[in-house]
Amino acid sequence: MISVVQNVAIDCADAYGLARFWSEVTGRPLDPDNRPGDRETQVPLGEGPVLYFNQVPEARTVKNRIHLCLRPDTSRDREVERLLALGAAFVADHRNPDGTGWAVLSDPEGNEFCVLRGDEDHARTPARP
Question: What pTM does this model have?
Answer without folding.
Answer: 0.89
